[in-house]
Amino acid sequence: MHYDEVCDSNGVVRDFAMNWLRSCFCRAALVCIALTACVGLSATKPEAPVYDVRSAVVLSGPNMPAELLSGINDRVNAAINATVRETVLPRVVLTIRVVSIQKGLGFQKDRNVAKISIDAASVEDGSVIAVSAFDVTSIAADPKLADEILAEDVAARIRSVFSLSGRGR
After folding, report:
1. Whole-structure pTM over 0.85, yes or no?
2. How far apart are CA 144 and CA 135, in angstroms?
3. What span, in angstroms and rounded, lies between the C-alpha atoms of 146 and 159?
4. What digits encode the pLDDT tens for the residues 116-140?
5. Which residue from 72, 74, 54 is spatially nearest to 115, judged by alpha carbons?
6. pLDDT single digits (tens) 54-80
């Protein structure tokens, strides 16, 4: 196509532009449709298993604050008691280990970190059927409240991981 053919007075410029836009639009539409079709082929992540948690015990090494341990224990067991399961699920008991804690981290010395390890053991035969480990970071402006706030944050994470009800306290 020559320049004089594109610019004649019969609207060839308009036709050329419309054809170009249509071809770009069609290409973009085809790409979008192809990508949408490919999304359906991707593997979906299977749901995490859910257990009927019957009780929990909190353990730790020496020199762990008693307020932290009892706070986690009270909150998790209250959530277990508040949870009602409509279906039959594998029954487990939780062994929650506070592996370590670090207090007064960060620039303002208000960040606290707890390393937690959990084993879920079957009520029927005592075998461990699930394991979870995670770190919980909390911020407490008042150091006197650090253990209480950290206990709530750890308990909240456990409630989330094991699908337990409510705050529990």
Report:
1. no
2. 21
3. 20
4. 999 999 999 999 998 999 999 999 8
5. 72
6. 999 999 988 999 999 999 999 999 999
